[in-house]
Amino acid sequence: MPAETYDVVVVGGGTAGAFAAATVAREGLDVVVLERKSAEEAGHIACGDAVKGKSTFPDVIDLDYLREESFSNEGITRARFENPHNGETLDVPFGPTNGAVVDRKRYGEVLLEEAERAGAEIHYDTVVRDVVQNGSISGVKATRKGSVLTYEGEVVIDAAGSLSLLQDKADLSDATFDTNVNYSQFCSAYREIVEVEEPVEWHDALVFKPTEELGYLWYFPRTPTEINVGLGFQMNRPPVKLVQVLKRDLRNRPEFRNARVIDKLGAALPTRRPYDSAVAPGFVAVGDAAAHVNPTTGGGIPGAAKAGHWAALQAVEAISEGATDEAALWEYNRRVQTDFGKRFAAMDLFNIWGGAVDMDEIMEIITKLPGQQLADVLGSSGTTSMPLSLKLKTAVKSFGHWRTLYQIKRVNDTATELKRIYDEFPASPDGFDRWRAKRDALMDDFYDLVGAEPKY
């Protein structure tokens, strides 16, 4: 059977894949999205559903339509942190603009509608089985409604999610593409959509509650009576019975008495720094498939949207210039790493540090520090400066944890230096090895500082 041929083949119809396809189509090239789910199920993805607003998305789709159709709660003004040790809460204002919570299924449907409206083809019920490769990756093999098909393209964009099959099938040994990936760098997550009888009083807040392991429970209100509830745990820790932990917490919350579960779903997501390089000849990875996820919160929608857009722009430019090797696609890496990539890499340091510190001590520190006063300072001034009286109070109450607090400061200092290194990400593959050696030297010092085993 002859191959179906396109300029760009996108595998996966989530946020990254849809934005990539819409961008390619807007640029006038032929693009197909291969989505394993049916048209009815597409968009049904396990997610916390929280976003900062439509301003975080590239302007290649009708963003007003996306907001009107899928933003079910645009009144998020604060984050609430619950201390599981003493029951106290800490509210931190969001800032000048509100956050939002979306109906994730409708959100996903709209993205695919918009990609198709831009000119992309969407092939549902299409399961990718292998890559087509002869040096450069030039397509994929897939099963669609019982038929075996080959899709060829100048560039394949991997938006197939965490631990992507495409990366297992492709030979990336001669590429810069980051293959230093394993399950321990990922998180297992589970979420339910729960309907409660009365509006929750925190309908304007994203609620976070740390768990005994390195992770947290979340309560994100889609509406005042429809709540996305979930939790996750690091896969480098002993397995956590996610459903039982969530149910136990729900039973202890009076607002969830007689609540009704209307949907449930689980997923794996990366809690690591973005891939050092997410390109190979004819191949680009985006979104979860390249670890474009905030490693401390698990938030992946904004990074996926940007990455899909940038990857598509670079693919279009490479195709127009007649070369799709790593050098032709490299600018995509640089854009990611000098934008959200550096922030996510810095945040990952706190994950590494948290894995090396006893969680009971962390929670005890949180309990003793004057959190609300600190939140007031952060909310009003946007800095971490404190008046002398508050510094003295903090010092007294945190007695016995000064070594850990000093270590937190050192972690923060390292994070600042790491972001400077990411700002220097090379403009071509030629400087990649030197850049990585400098970054890895800083990481070696960091592991010694916090007493952690190397994560990569």
What are its keywords?
eight-stranded mixed β-sheet, about 450 residues, globular, seven-stranded mixed β-sheet, alpha/beta, about 40% helix
Textual characterization of the structure:
- The protein contains 12 helices and 18 strands.
- With 456 residues, it is of the alpha/beta class.
- The strands form 3 sheets. Strands 1, 2, 8, 9, 10, 11, 17 and 18 form an 8-stranded mixed beta sheet that branches. The protein has a 7-stranded mixed beta sheet with strand order 6-5-13-14-15-12-16. A 3-stranded antiparallel beta sheet has the order 3-7-4.
- It is globular.
- Main sheet: strands, sense, barrel: 8 strands, mixed
Q: Using the alpha-carbon principal axes, give the shape.
A: globular
Strand content: 25-35%
Rounded mean pLDDT score = 88
Order of helices and strands: EHEEHEEEEHEEEEHEEEEHEEEHHHHHHH
In whole angstroms, the N-to-C terminal distance is 43 Å
List the uncertain runs. Answer: 370-396
DSSP, total strands: 18
The share of residues in helices is 25-40%
Return Rg in Å.
23 Å
Please tally the helical runs, counting DSSP H or I stretches of 4 or more residues. Answer: 12
* Structural class by SSE content: alpha/beta
Short description:
The chain has helices at residues 15-26, 63-70, 104-118, 165-169, 242-251, 301-320, 326-356, 359-368, 371-381, 388-397, 402-423, 432-450; strands at residues 4-11, 31-34, 50-51, 71-76, 78-82, 89-93, 99-102, 121-123, 126-134, 136-144, 147-158, 186-195, 205-210, 216-223, 226-234, 260-270, 279-280, 283-285. The chain has 456 residues and is α/β, with parallel strands linked by helices.
